[in-house]
Amino acid sequence: MEHSAVVWDHRAATEIIKDLNGIDQFLLRNPKGALARVSLHGGQVTSWRNEHGEELLFTSTKKEVIRLFSSPRKQCGEEYPFASHSLETADHLEQHGFARDKIWTVDDNPPPLHPNDSHGKSFIDLLLKPSEEDQKGWPHSFEFRLRVALATDGDLILISRVRNINSKPFSFSFAYHTYLSVSDICEVRIEGLETLDYLDNLCQRERFTEQGDAITFESEVDRVYLSSPNVIAVLDHEKKQTYVIRKEGLPDTVVWNPWEKKSKSMVDLGDEEYKQMVCVDGAAIEKPITLKPGKEWTGRLQLSVVPSSFCSEHLNL
């Protein structure tokens, strides 16, 4: 349980609580009763609930794992290998990005965003700067800003900004690792990625072309879809609802589910929990982002939930 003391942050009308380790968490609420929980540990969104109190993000019962976080991944010399969640790299944290294991701070004076990114939203602004220890492994100076916002309609919005305050260019990859809660992975259908080329992490990143009219799941999937559209739909037939993912500045999309065999080898996932989750991540993987000194990159992700019937009639995929 969280610490019982409650204060209110007037800057974003946000309730502040502490977790069991004494680290601040921020509860964003909208007038209809939707809620998002944001932790300073990793700048992670650890909960996103609709107005009925239903959890929309996935967490394993075996461990309080990250469900949604923004993660720049450093590029050192040659391209740093992307391994999604397939544990293909030796360093488990590095493959998810170094930002997820850092303690962020509240950004008291963030540079202005577009007025639409503030109006009618409950939000918190976070900031990450590299420590001296961080710079030993990646000798670049940067400012990584993250705004997490909960809109009046319940949409969850993340806006990430990475600025190069170094004297020379640097490159990085980026991914929002989005663990969505679903009723049954066998009943899930992803639309918007058909006909695209993808890199298959289960086949040494060999390049293939998607042949199906949608992505469905019958076995382990670990793919990076390239040059993907900015709107993707994840249909949950059993719940008759659809997650709509809208992204900007993120050309690629990672799709991952570990399936039965790999789940049994993962310490932070129950043997059968792969059935209740799917990862569909907005990312920049194939072509790392390069920032010149003083320049800034922005990536944006917006998650919505709508009835599946609405999706097929009104979404332009």
Automatic annotation (TrEMBL):
**Position of the signal peptide:** none
The question of whether Isomerase is a record keyword is answered with: yes
List the InterPro entries hit by this protein, alphabetically: Aldose_1/G6P_1-epimerase, G6P_1-epimerase, Gal_mutarotase_sf_dom, GH-type_carb-bd
Give a GO cellular-component term.
Answer: cytoplasm
Q: Could you confirm whether the keyword ATP-binding appears in this record?
A: no
Residue numbers binding substrate: 73, 95, 100
This protein's UniProt keywords: Isomerase
Q: Which domain of life is it from?
A: Eukaryota
Under the heading Pfam families, the entry gives: Aldose_epim (PF01263)
Mind listing the GO biological process terms from this record? carbohydrate metabolic process
E.C. no: 5.1.3.15
Task: Recall the GO molecular function terms of this protein's record.
Answer: carbohydrate binding; glucose-6-phosphate 1-epimerase activity
* Catalytically driven reaction(s): alpha-D-glucose 6-phosphate = beta-D-glucose 6-phosphate
The name under which this protein is listed is glucose-6-phosphate 1-epimerase
